[in-house]
Amino acid sequence: MSETIRTTPLHRVHREAGARMVPFAGWDMPVQYTSVVDEHMAVRTRAGLFDVSHMGEVAVRGRGSLAFLQHVTSNDVSRLAPGRIQYSALTTPSGTFVDDLLVYKLAEDDYLLVINAGNTPKDVAWLADHARGRDVDLADVSSRWCQLAVQGPRAESILAPLTATGLAAIKYYGFERGEVAGLPCLISRTGYTGEDGFELYAASESAEALWHALLAAGASEGLVPAGLAARDTLRLEAKMALYGNDIDDTTTVLEADLGWIVKLEKGEFLGRDALVQQKAEGLTRKLVGFETEGRAVARHGYEAQHGGRAVGTVTSGSFAPFLKKNIGLAYLPLALEAPGTRFDVVIRGRPEAAVVVPTPFYKRPR
Amino acid sequence: MVPSDRRYTKDHEWVQVSGETATIGITDFAQGELGDIVYVEAPEIGKTVAPGEVLGTIESVKAVSELYAPVGGTVTESNAALAGAPETLNRDPHGAGWICKLKIASPAEADGLMDAAAYAALIG
After folding, report:
1. pTM value?
2. A47, A244, A353, B104: which could form a disulfide with A223 (CB 3.0–4.6 Å)?
3. CB-CB: which of B35, B39, B62 is closest to A296?
4. What domains does chain A contain, in order, with CATH numbers?
5. How much is the ipTM here?
6. pLDDT of A1-21, one tens digit each?
7. Nearest alpha-carbon partner for A225 in A43, A58, A37
8. Domain B8-123 has what CATH class?
C-alpha cells in the first residue's frame, strides 16, 4: 500500500480558492471553502458545486457482464435499461457490504460502476476475483475521469445554458452523454445531497475548464463551491448511507434498512443465502434515525443505551444545518425501531435523551 | 488578528488577566479551524481546575474539541450568551465570544504563556 496522498485534477483550483484541505480516504480533499453551514444552505436553497473526482469508476464489459453483475450485486441489474442507473450493494457471502455503488448501464454488455474512493483498490480486487472464468472485461478507469456534482434546486437552470442536451428529459437516476461547456460528459441526474442535481463525469483533463465554466454560469444563480463537510451533512439529512460510518462488511444490507436494493427473487447472488436466512429469522437490529434534544452532538461510535443498558452504536451524527437540530443514525434492536421510541446516547460519559424519528430527516419539496 | 492585550497557549486558547480574574476564550485561528460552532459546554461555576485540565467542550458541525485551562483557578462565571448563540464564537472569538472567567491566585499565573508575537509566529 502506498502512503502517498492522492489529489484530484482540481487540487490547485481548490487551494487557490482558499479551501481548507483534509485527507479523506487517501485523498487530499476540500472539506470546506467558507463555512459548512453556508455551503449546506446554498445547496438546499440554490446550488453547490462539488469536486468528487476521488470516487472510483470501474468499466464492466463483455457478454458475461449482466450475469457477473447479477452475481456480485444485490439489486436486479436485469431491470436496468440503457441510460438508467441503479443504487446497489457489492455484497459479501454474509450479506454485508464490500461497498455500496451506482451501476450505470451504458449499453448492452457495457456498464460503469461508481464506487467509494477509499474502497476502490479493495473493490477492484474483489471484482477481479469474482470475474475469473467469466466472459467479462474489467477496467479500473478511476484516474481517467473527473466527477463534478452540481446539486440544488437551481442545478438544472445553471447547467441548461451550457449544454444542448435536454436536461428536463433526464429523469432521476437517468443519464445522457453530451457536452457541457463544449466538453464531452456523462450527464447523470444523481447526487448525494437529497436535492435535485447532476453529477458530471468527464475526462480528467477537462476538470478545470468544466469547474470554471460551471462556476461562471452559476454565479448569478448563487452557485458556490461546496466541500466534503457539507456533502456529509447534506447526505445525512437525506439519510443516505456512508460506507465506513453506517455500513461496512459487518452490517448486512437488510440491517442497513436498504431492503429495497435486495432483490431475492432475481436468483443467485453473493450473500443471498445469508440474507434469505436473516429475513426468515428476523432482524435483530436495524439502522434508524434519531434526534437528540440537548445541544451536544451524538457522533460516530457513541454508545446507545436503553434503560441504562448498552443496546447499540451511533454510526453518524451531526448538527443538521437546514433542519437546525441534532440528528443521527444508529443501529438499534428491532424492539426500539419505532418512531417515538426514547433512548439515550452517551455523550462524554453522560446519557443524553434521544428519540427515534421517521427518515429521511429531510425530503426536498417537489 | 492576534490582540496584544492577552496571552496564548499552543492549544489556541487565549487568557486575559485583570487582577485576580482570568478571562478565557479560543483564538480566531481556533474558530477558523473548527468551522461553524454549534455548541459550547462551559464549565460549572465553582469548578476548580489545574493548568491543562479540561475546562469545557466546543462542538462544531465537523468535530468536537476540548477547551483546556490555560491557567489554574476556580470558575467564577461562564458566558451564558453562548448557549443560545454559539456562533458568537465564530464571529467574535476575542470579544463577545469569551467562554469563562477564573479566579486565579496571582496575575503571574499567565506569565509563562505565549505573548501575541510568539503566538502569531506559531500559527504562521
Report:
1. 0.94
2. A47
3. B39
4. 11-54+144-237 (3.30.1360.120), 284-366 (2.40.30.110)
5. 0.85
6. 456 899 999 999 999 999 999
7. A43
8. mainly beta
